[in-house]
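idk why but the lab printer keeps eating my pages so im just putting this in chat instead. protein + adenosine-5'-triphosphate:
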Amino acid sequence: MEERMEQLICENITKNYKSKDALDSVNLTLAKGKIYGLIGRNGAGKTTLLSILSAQNPPSEGSVVLETEEGRLSVWENEKALSHICFSRELNVGKNTALSATKVKDYLRTASVYLPYWDQELADELIRKFHLDVKQKIGKLSKGMVSMVTIIVALASKADFTFLDEPVSGLDVVAREQFYRILLEEFTETGRTFVVSTHIMEEAADLFEEVIILKEGKLLLKENTEELLESCLHISGKAEEVDRATEGLEKHYEERLGRSKSVMVRLKPGQELPDAEVTVQPMKLEKVFVALCGEEA
Ligand SMILES: Nc1ncnc2c1ncn2[C@@H]1O[C@H](COP(=O)(O)OP(=O)(O)OP(=O)(O)O)[C@@H](O)[C@H]1O
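predcted complex ->
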């Protein structure tokens, strides 16, 4: 019987670069069979986290452990653990680099050698779906086509834990929708775990069972997306009414305009808003993110 990977655990990960502390004591457990959205402002530490989770980058402190039926395997320098993890990074092609001169088919062939569960049939299907010219050099591809190459590597890797770093950043809206559909199909068929970092939250929010938010190198929250959105409310109205309605609640992003005021509250389980003359509106993920990670006015 095929061995199943259970969860990937990130224990107290800190990463200090020379001039920057990129991650600060991050504890995180990624369960089998979920799609996670990883969000955070520029420089929050998303890429650093994914590179540490996949052992492409050593942490300054802490460890990453793959928990299996057979026991706990440290991910660092452990071929068996790493065979179940794929981080398909954004490609920095650059001019006149070895990568820019590499043909797509050769890049994919190299990936197929390194990734032990590579599915060539799936890779070929995705190449067709994305209309990708595999004879083309990577340096000659458009930004979106380069993103497609990283998406193909991620999906065809068939790794139990697959990380994609801003996969849709260069894609047009049609290709983005196509990517979300393909990802969901692959997820439904296989129950693999995906972590997808993105700045384009709204259109991907339905895809994420859980969201992970990094803020300045710290894990701000990891929560079921639906529950997070249910708990966050936008309250507006006369300032004194808003104050009365939100007293004692967790508040973010207060904005005052003359005598009126608006604020986001995040209700804890069991908490309710008192009756008050205020307008209460549900919030979309992007607005919740801005309220949690944006700069207060
Ligand atoms: N190799 C490195 N050397 C020094 N500092 C680095 C290195 N890589 C990242 N950093 C710094 O660590 C911090 C986190 O960077 P990281 O790339 O992980 O952020 P991110 O959340 O992925 O950002 P973005 O959304 O802009 O891609 C940033 O301040 C960045 O400048």
